[in-house]
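Suppose you are handed a protein chain with no further information: no name, no annotation, nothing but its sequence. What can you learn? This example shows the usual starting point.
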Amino acid sequence: MQKRRWLSRFFAGIVTIAMLSCPALFNVQAQAEEEITFAMLPQMSNTELFKCWKPILDYLQKETGVKFKQVFAKDFTEHIAMCKEGKISFAYSNPFTYVTMSKRSKEQPNSHKVIAIGAQAEGPTFAGEIIVNADNSTIKTVKDIKGKKGMVVGYDSAGGYLFQQGYAIDNGINLPKDCVITEAPGNKQERVITAVIGNEVDFGCIRDGMRQKVKDKMDISKVKVLATTPQYPNWVVSNYEKVDPKIVEKVSKALQSIPADIMKEAALPGGIKSFVKAVEKDMDSIRRLSEKTGQ
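A reasonable first move is to predict its three-dimensional structure. Written in C-alpha cells, the prediction is:
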C-alpha cells in the first residue's frame, strides 16, 4: 500500500514537472481534445443555419480530424462579443461584422483573423438590395424612400444595411436620419422580406441572393428590387487568434478543397460555390466604407 502511494506521488510529480517545463504541449493536446466551436452570423433561423453548415462541417471534420460544435448567437451583437471573447473558434461573418470584431483593444488584445472568403460563380463579392412591394407605385427611385418607413437587417449588417447606407449617401440620403428605420427582429433577413410583402414597411434592405434563398417559403414575386449597391468583399471565414495554428492551417486548406456537391447541398446564402484564401488587405474597401458611413 505504501509503495503504491509512493509510485502515485512519483508519477504525479513527473507530470507536474513536464507541464511546468512545456505547458504549450499540454495546451495543444487539451485544445485538440476539445470541440472546436463554429458559428455563422445569425442572419437566418438556427434551423436554417444548422442545415446549411452541417454538410460543410462534416466534411471539414473528416478532412482535418477536428471535431466541430456548431453554436448559435441570438443576434449580431452576441456573435461579435462571442468572437472577441474567443467563445467562437471559427466564424462565418459578413465583412463589416468581421472588421468590427477584428479590432483589438487593451481589454481584448486578441481577435479574429480572416482565412477565407466565400466565392460565387462570379467571384468573391456580393451586393446589397433595396426592395419594395411589387405593388408599390409611389416609390420609383431610391430618392423616393426619403421620409418613408424602412427595415434593415441590423446596423451591423453589411448587405442588409451598410452597403445600402453607402449607396443612399451617394444619392443624398442618410437612412437613419432621413427615413424611419427599424431593425429586423433577431437580425433575420427573412423578416425584412416578409415586412415588405406585408406592407409593414415601405422598403427593406437585404443582401443579394436572399430572395432566391427563401423562394420556397414565401411569394417573392411580390417583391421588387428598387436598387442594387456596388459589389463588396463577400462573407469571410475567420479564426480566433489563440486557436492552435496547426488546426487553423488544416481547416484553411480543407475549406479551399470542399467538393462542389457538398457546397450545393449546403446552399449558403448568395449562391456561394467555394472558399478562396483571404488576407487582411482584402477587407480594405469595407474599412473605407465603414469610415464613410460613420460605423
